[in-house]
Amino acid sequence: MLGTFIRTRLSRQRSTPARPLRIRVRPVLHGQLGRLLGAFALFEIGNLAATLFILRATDLLTPAHGLQTATQIALGLYTAYNIAATVVSFPAGRVSDRLGQRGPLLVVAAGVATFLVSYVLFALTGPAIALLAVALIAAGIGIGCAETAEHVAVAAIAPEHLRGSAFGLLATVQAGGNVIASTIAGLLYTIASPAVAFGYVAACMALALAALAWAAKPTPSASAQSDC
Questions:
Q1: Which DSSP category does 19 fall into?
Q2: How many other CB atoms are found less than 10 A from the CB of residue 117?
Q3: Can you give the pLDDT at residue 34?
């Protein structure tokens, strides 16, 4: 009987035509889902690598503490950043689940707003360890909220037949945005000033907040998105 079952299954698999795998970009970019991914793109091109936080803290603290001590303090603050990101991700996930479709958007918006505060502090603060700690912890809270809820927000809005394409496009936005953010901010940090670099990413966060507010408004025909 087992042999008959296996032969039957193999026969069915051979008779089922293979469906080509493809990412559908155009339908994903329509309506509320497209606005949401646009908001995420604005966030990601301002989502700096944490190494620039460490560099900024080290540069600010070196005149008063020396390079070695300043580096140690900056690495200690980076540890606080990681702890904040880890601790916040759990309640952020629960809030995303409990508040329905708007929950993930609210959590991402909270993360983006916290990043905005962090970047303004990095742009304007002096060599005050307490303020640098607040800036790094705020950045950790921001990443803990935003990265936890981005995928949930896409899953809540994307139609089932476009969900795979939406996740693929989100991954592209995240990877490409991180490279763009660090490249542009790094150049501005070197050529212009740290304040200009962090001002750039703070502007990205402000634009992302506005775009998230726009994305929160549902499109009347969202449920009828085409898969062409």
A1: P
A2: 17
A3: 79
pLDDT of the residue at 95: 82
222 closest CA partner among 156, 152, 158, 153: 158
Residue 58: name the closest of 7, 132, 119, 156 by CA. Answer: 132
69: its two tokens: 């001590």
If one counts every other C-beta atom within 10 angstroms of the C-beta of residue 4, the result is 8
DSSP assignment letter at 222: G
Tell me if residue 79 falls in helix, strand or coil: helix
* Residue 183, amino acid: T
Structure token pair of residue 117: 């505060």
Q: Over the chain (228 residues), what is each successive 10-residue block's mean pLDDT?
A: 44 47 56 84 92 94 94 95 93 81 87 96 93 96 90 80 76 88 94 95 95 79 43
Cα dist from 50 to 75, 78, 82, 169, 185, whole Å:
11, 8, 10, 24, 12
From the CB of residue 195, how many other CB atoms can be counted at a distance below 10 Å?
15
Q: Are 134 and 150 in contact (CB under 8 A)?
A: no
Residue 168 confidence (pLDDT): 79
What span, in angstroms and rounded, lies between the C-alpha atoms of 119 and 181? 13
The whole-number pLDDT of residue 99 equals 74
User: Using CA atoms in the order 108, 114, 117, 119, what is the torsion angle rounded to 10 degrees?
Assistant: -70
Task: Note every long-range contact of 154-158, with CB atoms under 8 Å and residues 24 or more positions apart, other chains counting.
Answer: 154/33, 154/36, 154/37, 156/101, 156/104, 157/32, 157/33, 157/36, 157/101, 157/222, 158/28, 158/33
Which tokens is 177 given?
């945005």
Given a contact cutoff of 8 angstroms between Cβ atoms, the answer to whether 170 and 37 are in contact is yes
Q: Per the structure block, which two tokens stand in for 100?
A: 């329905």
